[in-house]
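Question (not urgent): is this output format expected?
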Amino acid sequence: MNDTNIKREELLSWLYLLVGAMLAAFAVEGFLAPNNVFDGGVVGVSMIASRLSGADLALFILVLNLPFVIIAWRKLGKLFVLKSAFSLMLFSLGTVLLKPYVGVTQDEFLAVTFGGLMLGAGVGLVLKGGGCLDGTEIVAILMSRKTSLSVGQVILVINVVIYVIAGFLFGLDHGMYSLIMYFITSKIIDIVEMGWNSTKAVFIVTSEGQMLANRILQELGRTVTFMDGHGLISDERKDVLYCVITRAEVFEMKRIIDSCQYTSFTTIHEVSEIVGRRL
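Got this back:
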């Protein structure tokens, strides 16, 4: 990637942060907060504290996230912390600027649905830009390095506790609405950050790799990577083919493999992200 492309990508990442933070702020002030539907993590705690005390949400977002930003500065990459701090300030500012326009709808179902969609899109754009909007993600990253728990599992446990507390304080319905909103948000975050197209990685172990690779190239237009393998019991040499395809091509790939007269063993896996170009 040349210098021009690198600069363009970096500029685009900051644009993602700007748009994502403002979109998330609008989701919180326009849909969630007026209907007592709460986000998870530090933002969720800030929303609860703001609702109970009457103080500005922006103040709690900045103050409660500050310790996590300091921890991240010592433990994580400096650019990540800088982008996260930038996103948090924009997010807080957005909640102040958009507060006069709160209450897009008083229908809790619509608030959960559209608030979740917009919040997920906003958070997803921030993550795609290389930052984060919540100190909980920083804690989850650090905990995942020292425990067997994944980042997603840590965040889920923390958020469930927050939603239980919200249910006790504001009614069980609001706690359950918040939980539903969280699952909508999580799905949209994945779509925005990773893209709409679901890709699959295919591993094929066969004794006739060249013939199968030619058919995949001719019928699917996909190239494959060859690796050498040996059977443990037979001790025979095997070709291991690796190929990345879209979800729509899985059926055709299975058809090609099934129609092959030679024995092959195939596994198909989800691919979360692709970096680089075809070699």
